[in-house]
């Protein structure tokens, strides 16, 4: 179990820092290496935990998560783009492996160092964002969407910080070491500054809602404020957060905001759904929910939202750019909208039931009469789930690798032992079989991510057609590489190459216009299906 814990600790830091120098790929040059780290860490940690396992206790939350994975797997079978389905399924399965490994670590009472490592890794991610905000040049950072740091996007950085913030706060409150409490206060100040500078409204809400619950339920109702040590620690952390926000406002940074009062403008616009990104989200949600209504049981397949969305877009839809080769984002701006449309309403209900069970368990533990440490852990569990629910309502969280590692790792470590509904005995033969299945799945998912990463590095700047062709052979699922070889409309390559790679791009995204246009320019009949 200690080996499994070390793997997850190292994996959390590596996942935060992993990026690739690939100018052709915007978000994927950050996402793909993080997915590779997730798969490797989840697989190795699960195998290490299985070495000591003699029984697998299954509680209600485990059955619900298994149901979610089963429904996602069936949905993937019927997806149009199986490459995308396999990739999305890999993130879900590796996240679940992290959760069950963290649960085993918690049953061995070794969870605290894991929670500390996850919180510290999130602070490291916040530091990379701050370094970018204040003009410190670091390799592999993306100049756009600053201050995203090693995440490539300021929203992704802020989401992780908001999700890990409750654990960071509770760790600083419960420790008896003054030095660790001060370290927690410094981490809180860094997290608060990074959250402010990100201007991520989803992350702001994801931090505010758990903070309100902490004050009302934790400090007031559960009477944590009555304890003198807890009171002094919460006061220290509140002062540290205020200091971090004040320094972020006062110190000059290199962020090129167009507004004279960018942070006030973002704060005022949190609930603005009549214009800007708020209006765009509503249009995207409405169109995506029509997609979910047409495929209520299994959805269109994990990761296949961008494949099918062209069939549901409407005029003046900000989420769809008809002039772009890739007219949509890789995912919609909400986990819950994405899961309902990609995996079906039963899968969404199963995942929401997992969250509901954890909320109830954490709230009951907070309201119980157990030791202060148990009540604080219940508070951390509820606040973490609330942060995930809120942030996931406005952006992609569980669809991505790094939040999946942190969310499932924190929840598995913080969830107390549950009433066992079933127990699976693991004699040596069955344990070996389960280890082989786990290793095979981890290798397949990691190999997929490794092939993508290798293709990105091989394609380089895209100037060498020969290297791009080799990259497309290594990763035939890359729509961007296939379209580069086919040529953009009006600037196509030789027709022999267009027919091969344009057709490959059309098979990957059969409803996109760009592959159809380049194929028609060489006399190839192709069309997109319309509803």
What would the principal axes of the Cα set say about the shape?
globular
Percentage beta strand: under 5%
Total helices: the number is 21
C-alpha Rg, in Å? 23 Å
Helix content: 55-70%
Q: What's the order of the H and E elements? A: HHEHHHHHHHHHHHHHHEHHHEEHH
Q: N- to C-terminal separation?
A: 53 Å
Number of domains: 2
Provide keyphrases for this structure.
two-stranded antiparallel sheet, mainly alpha, 531 residues, 4 strands, 2 domains
Describe this structure in words.
With 531 residues, the protein is mainly alpha-helical. The protein has 2 domains: 2-18 and 25-275 and 326-428, no CATH class; 467-531, no CATH class. 69% of the residues lie in helices and 2% in strands. It contains 21 helices and 4 strands. The protein has helices at residues 2-17, 28-52, 60-77, 82-107, 111-133, 154-174, 178-198, 201-221, 228-250, 262-268, 276-294, 305-308, 335-342, 345-367, 372-394, 401-414, 428-459, 465-474, 479-486, 495-508, 513-520, and strands at residues 55-58, 422-425, 487-488, 491-492. Helix 17 (428-459) packs antiparallel against helix 18. The longest helix is centred in the last third of the chain and has 32 residues, at 428-459. It starts with a helix and ends in an 11-residue tail after the last helix. The mean pLDDT is 91.
């Amino acid at each position: 179990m200690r080996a499994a814990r070390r793997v997850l600790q190292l994996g959390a830091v590596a996942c935060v820092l992993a990026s690739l120098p690939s100018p052709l790929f915007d978000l994927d040059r950050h996402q793909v290496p993080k997915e590779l780290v997730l798969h490797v860490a989840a697989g190795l940690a699960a195998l290490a935990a299985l070495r000591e396992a003699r029984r697998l206790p299954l509680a209600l939350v485990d059955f619900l998560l298994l149901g979610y994975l089963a429904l996602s797997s069936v949905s993937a079978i019927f997806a149009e783009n199986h490459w995308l389905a396999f990739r999305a399924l890999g993130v879900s399965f590796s996240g679940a492996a992290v959760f069950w490994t963290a649960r085993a670590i918690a049953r061995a009472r070794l969870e605290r160092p894991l929670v500390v490592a996850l919180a510290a890794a999130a602070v490291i991610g916040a530091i990379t964002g701050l370094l970018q905000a204040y003009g410190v040049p670091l390799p592999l950072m993306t100049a756009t969407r600053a201050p995203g740091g090693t995440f490539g996007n300021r929203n992704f950085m802020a989401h992780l910080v908001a999700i890990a913030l409750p654990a960071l706060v509770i760790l600083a409150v419960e420790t008896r070491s003054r030095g660790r409490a001060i370290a927690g206060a410094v981490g809180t100040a860094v997290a608060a500054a990074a959250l402010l500078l990100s201007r991520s409204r989803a992350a702001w809400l994801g931090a505010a809602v758990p903070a309100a619950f902490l004050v009302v339920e934790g400090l007031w109702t559960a009477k944590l404020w009555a304890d003198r040590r807890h009171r002094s620690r919460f006061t220290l952390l509140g002062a540290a957060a205020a200091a971090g926000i004040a320094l972020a406002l006062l110190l000059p940074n290199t962020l090129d905001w167009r507004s004279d009062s960018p942070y006030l403008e973002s704060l005022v616009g949190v609930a603005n759904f009549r214009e800007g990104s708020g209006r765009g989200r509503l249009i995207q949600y409405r169109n995506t929910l029509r997609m979910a209504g047409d495929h209520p049981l299994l959805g269109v397949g994990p990761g296949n939202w961008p494949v099918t969305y062209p069939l549901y877009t409407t005029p003046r839809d900000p989420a769809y750019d008809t002039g772009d080769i890739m007219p949509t984002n890789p995912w919609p701006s909400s986990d819950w909208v994405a899961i309902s449309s990609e995996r079906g309403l039963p899968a969404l209900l199963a995942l929401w039931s997992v969250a509901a069970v954890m909320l109830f368990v954490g709230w009951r533990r907070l309201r119980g009469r157990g030791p202060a440490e148990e009540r604080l852990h219940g508070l951390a569990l509820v606040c973490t789930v609330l942060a995930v629910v809120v942030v996931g309502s406005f952006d992609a969280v569980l669809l991505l690798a790094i939040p999946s590692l942190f969310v499932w790792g924190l929840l598995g470590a913080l969830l107390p032992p549950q009433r066992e509904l079933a127990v699976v005995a693991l004699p040596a033969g069955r344990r070996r079989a389960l280890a082989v299945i786990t290793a095979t799945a981890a290798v397949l998912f990691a190999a997929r991510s490794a092939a993508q990463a290798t293709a990105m590095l091989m394609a380089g700047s895209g100037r060498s057609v020969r290297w791009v062709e080799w990259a497309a052979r290594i990763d035939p699922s890359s729509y961007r590489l296939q379209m580069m070889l086919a040529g953009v409309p009006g600037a196509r390559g030789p027709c022999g190459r267009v027919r091969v790679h344009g057709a490959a791009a059309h098979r990957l995204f059969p409803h996109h216009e760009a592959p159809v246009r380049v194929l028609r320019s060489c006399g190839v009949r192709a069309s997109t299906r319309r509803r």
